[in-house]
User: Which sequence fits this backbone?
């Protein structure tokens, strides 16, 4: 049994600025200020972390934000659903086909490790043409501020779902940023990094992921499962 944990933004799909607009509206609504949001780069961060970085200067702690995460996630999902249809949301090359192929294989478990909240992730995925229920396990950026904790949650859920022990070395984290690579390493999982996202390609190369591919159309050239 192998567990595939996909990142969403920059890996499976692009939402072309919709995420940032929805995030700003939700932060303003829930916290009453935007803080330094315009200087926060979203790539690889959990939604919890994005809010924390934006509002640190306003005196909000990680715990303050965690305490309001449910309210924030609801506001964000509402704004996301409103904003997404006005943007050119699309799946990235090879992503829809790869997920469809993996879902058909009984030896693979398809899941998510994403910085998005549990409420926003399915809205985004649906907008890009994915079926959110294809991802049978997930760990979300509303559950931990530190992305490195998320693969552990996803693995635990996959084991509970299947009733089987899954080795960390049988987990693949598929993402587009150094943060995806680091969270794979935190678990002892292998990393598949695509160059379709938000990170400097040279920085990704230097970090030496297990597999580095231009986009998901090259997945099976690099990875044997
Ligand atoms: Mg990403």
Assistant:
């Amino acid at each position: 049994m192998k567990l595939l944990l996909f990142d969403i933004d920059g890996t499976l799909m692009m939402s072309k600025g919709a995420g940032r607009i929805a995030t700003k509206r939700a932060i303003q609504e829930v916290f009453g200020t935007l803080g330094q949001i315009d200087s926060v780069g979203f790539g690889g961060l959990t939604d919890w972390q994005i809010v924390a970085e934006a509002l640190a200067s306003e005196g909000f702690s990680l715990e303050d934000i965690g305490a309001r995460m449910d309210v924030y996630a609801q506001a964000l999902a509402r704004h996301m659903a409103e904003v997404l249809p006005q943007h050119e949301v699309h799946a990235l090359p090879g992503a829809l086909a790869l997920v469809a192929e993996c879902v058909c294989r009984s030896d693979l478990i398809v899941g998510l490790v994403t910085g998005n909240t549990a409420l926003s992730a399915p809205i985004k995925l649906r907008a890009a043409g994915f079926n959110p229920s294809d991802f049978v396990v997930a760990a979300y950026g509303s559950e931990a501020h530190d992305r490195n904790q998320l693969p552990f949650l996803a693995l635990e859920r996959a084991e509970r779902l299947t009733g089987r022990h899954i080795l960390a070395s049988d987990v693949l984290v598929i993402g587009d940023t150094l943060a995806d690579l680091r969270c794979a390493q935190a678990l002892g999982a292998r990393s598949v990094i695509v160059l379709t996202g938000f990170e400097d390609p040279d920085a990704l190369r230097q970090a030496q992921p297990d597999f580095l591919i231009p986009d998901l159309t090259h997945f099976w050239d690099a990875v044997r499962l």
Remarks:
- The chain has two domains: 2-14+90-222, 18-86.
- The two ends are 10 Å apart (CA to CA).
- The longest helix spans residues 69-83.
- The domain at 18-86 is CATH 1.10.150 (DNA polymerase; domain 1).
